[in-house]
Amino acid sequence: MNTKQILRGTTVGLGLMVGLASAAMAEEITIATVNNGDMVRMQSLAPQWEQATGNKINWVVLEENVLRQNVTTDISTGGGQYDVMTIGTYEAPIWGANDWLVSLNDGMAEDWDADDLLPAIRGGLTVDGTLYAAPFYGESSMVMYRTDLMEKAGLEMPEAPTWQFIREAAAAMTDRDNDINGICARGKAGWGENMAFLSAMANSFGARWFDMDWNAQFDSPEWKETLTFYLDMMNESGPAGAANNGFNENLTLFQQGKCGMWIDATVAASFVTNPADSTVADKVGFALAPDTGLGKRGNWLWAWSLAIPASSEKVDVAKDFISWATGKGYTELVAENEGWANVPPGTRTSLYENQAYLDAAPFAEMTLKSINSADPQNPSVQEVPYTGIQFVAIPEFAGIATQVGQLFSDALAGNRSADEALNAAQELTTEEMEAAGY
Amino acid sequence: MARAITPRKKIMWTALAWGIGLLIFFPIMWTFLTSFKSEATAISDPPVWFIFDWTTENYSAVLARSNYPLALTNSIVIAVGSTLLGILIAVPAAWAMAFVPGKRTKDVLLWMLSTKMLPAVGVLYPLVLIAKYFGVMDSRILLVVILMLINLPIIVWMLYTYFREIPGEILEAARMDGASLKNEIIYVLTPMAVPGIASTILLNIILAWNEAFWTILLTTVNAAPLTKFIASFSAPEGLFYAKLSAASIMAIAPILIMGWFSQKQLVRGLTFGAVK
Question: Where is each ABC transmembrane type-1 domain found (chain B) (predicted)?
Answer without folding.
Answer: 72-262
